[in-house]
Amino acid sequence: MPNAYDLIETTWITLPDGRRLAARMxxxxxxxxxxxxxEYLPYRxxxxxxxxxxxxxxxxxxxxxxxxxxxxxxxxxxxxxFDDEYSEQxxxxxxxxxxxxxxxxxxxxxxxxxxxxxxxxxxxxxxxxRPEALKAVVSVASTADRYADxxxxxxxxxxxxxxxxxxxxxxxxxxxxxxxxxxxxREDWIxxxxxxxxxxxxxxxxxxxxxxxxxGSVCEDWSAITAPVLAITGWADAYVNTPSALAxxxxxxxxALVGPWEHRYAHIAKLxxxxxxxxxxxxxxxxxxxxxxxxxxxxxxxxxxxxxxNPTMQNKPRQGRWVAEAQWPSPNVRDRVMFLGADGLxxxxxxxxxxxxxxxxxxxxxxxxxxxxxxxxxxxxxxxxDDAMATCFDTGPLAEPLEILGRPRxxxxxxxxxxxxQLVARLCDVSxxxxxxxxxxxxxxxxxxDSHETPELLVPGQRYEAEIALNECAHxxxxxxxxxxxxxxxxxxxxxxxxxxxxxxxHLESSTLTLPERRVTTEIAPQNxxxxxxxxxxxxxVLRPASGTSQTIIREDGTVVLDTFDDYGKAxxxxxxxxxxxxxxxxxxxxxxxxxxxxxxxxxxxxxxQDAWQVxxxxxxxxxxxxxxxxxxxxxxxxEGADGVEVLxxxxxxxxxxxxx
Length: 661
Fold this sequence. Notes:
About 15% of the residues lie in helices and about 40% in strands.
């Protein structure tokens, strides 16, 4: 029978320096101490993650776990000033939070951390620091390398989501504490806005893999993590490389689980939801309660092997099957080398050259970088139009199925006509009807061909070599389908383009594609999560339903514009009565002949109401560039009361040299 528990809306955790962090807790009504589960985020326990928390922590508490959801310093109701993502302050505070939980009379000293994205990151990062009470981690959609696999850079290329995510955090950090919890909310609100970092600009000032990104990258020393880790993600998510990397490299017990999901916990995913609760509870029951439930015997790598399903940008069920590898790396996966030739991909070397050059608008079928953050129209669609602008290498129709599991590697010998250039590789599954589905992709800034720490400008006409390890994938190509390698010098709007249109010449005799081909005689039981169990949901009063739109237009001069609008709705929380509404519009524009014409802009609005208290926050953001510089601008307007009296208006702007970008 499920345990009864008490919900404590706000309790305070006092840090060693006197600052207080706000926590929401679900405490089982039991006579003996119990293990605890911590989720540690900057997204506001009282409203930001409350709908999701209702679906998770209530379930875990009913199974006898004490659940604690803590706001990072300077966010939500917590005191202090927020400084940066995964900062030393955040992680040292996290250690203090773990020690505080372990010292409570309701905790038996065994703590697990859970989180998706930010919470998945800092769960790994805190495990890296080895606090005594942290005994197990469930890390969802996270990274082991903050430079290589996050929202800022990919292969040394700047991602447009660096500006987009910076604009989102700007809006998030502009929100005030709840007056019911903080009598000083107004003074603190103004201070938060006035002192908040310009994160998009700060991140842009670190275009190489320097100490900014090494901090918090657990790949710096895999052996440092001793707590067992269950790493989970989905193939529609942006964070696909970490679970297999952890399973392959950690010396601590580690298991990888990759489903078809987008950037959400699996039980609330729009793409084939699954029993996330069962996975988490089994992991924590074994590692926090010492239950012999088989969690330690799971295959190293369980994954959903996808197949062609006529892709659209809308959410629709995936096609495929669950498979498992008892060991990772697996003896069932062997390298299969294919050569780039004048006639496509082949098993033999052919000399010659192929030129890669394309309009800056290539990438319109790419979808949103991190699917799951918007409402709809965010998945990669049919790649045919992008393929037509790219330089493609196809196999013939496959005589037998081909199964790929791992990270394909592209090795190219090339010369280029510009000192800064990009190369983007996509693998696609092309059906007999000609529908092209993206399997995986990856971008490389060719000035980073030898090092992400010390890039070097290219000498036009000189011959170089480079390798691109494409993102992790699991894909089954049916007989009769074709495998396509599509190469381009840009991928907008996911990748911010190089300053000038470049032409990359491939020297085919030294260019290869290595596939991690999976061949299995007898499959082991995949032990897939199964369908989601019933779970509670937040019974909010919805005043405005959520919705989203997306529109692409072409201006008279040929500029391609993508405008999106996501209304996150407006609702009243049933526990404390806070009414919250929010929406965001995003704008991307680029001219096909001018990469330096790229524009990103976003505008966020938040409104809060509780009794007679009302505030609203509007944030505006824009990023443009020319050949030499990036230009960033942002503005916040904070208002109070029913009449919307302005409390604070502030603007920031930064000019940052492009350097090797």
